[in-house]
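Reviewers of the previous submission asked for a worked example of the structure-prediction workflow described in the proposal, so we include one complete record here. The input consisted solely of the amino acid sequence. No template or homolog information was supplied to the procedure at any stage.
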Amino acid sequence: MRNEKKPLKIIIFYNTNIFEKVICDFIKKESKNIPVEISICDDYTFLCRQIAGGKIDILLTEYYFVYKKCSTGEQKYLKDECNNHQVKIMMFLQDTQTPLIGKIIQSGYHALISAQDNVEEFQNALQHLASCRDTVFISKALRSVTDDKKRMALSETLTLKEWEVIFLIVQGHSLSEIAAKKNRAISTVATQKHNAMKKLSVSTNGELLKYAYFNGIL
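From that input alone, the workflow returned the following structure tokens.
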């Protein structure tokens, strides 16, 4: 069991800008009886050094921020480093409308919460991670989403790589940029885009952007 008097060391991997102090103060206030030490960074290399140095207990980050910030290889390395150094990952989702929600839940994160959850769910997630349980914490809002059979069916339609391509396209990246970022051939990225658009029943980039807007991807 964790010594209750020992502060829980949390690092937030996100670009918070002027809201840094507000976020830190909020987490400290809402962490109930768990003493916490909070730091914030948006630098991948610094984050990995902190984890490797044993200075972190919990990594709190946002799903789309990680996908924009890190390559596939960097994401895998980050997960491996967290597992190797007993760092728990709390993943925050700004949107629960993404068709990939089922795959996100199955991605091996230790806790998942969303913007649709209340403060109590954040407290529950923090308590869950502090107790060092082996089970995954899934918030009420996300559990509700997984009960939506239509959305779960859609999440199984797109592969993870197809979703990565679609997400980056609607963020404004070209096929060549995506290929370089994900270390794939341009022809492979083009095929993944074609397959994904076919599954989503869209035929043009304009329709894809419209789909992204109405499904909370943009």
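The CA atoms of residues 105 and 168 lie 20 Å apart. We consider this example representative of the routine output the project will generate in years two and three.
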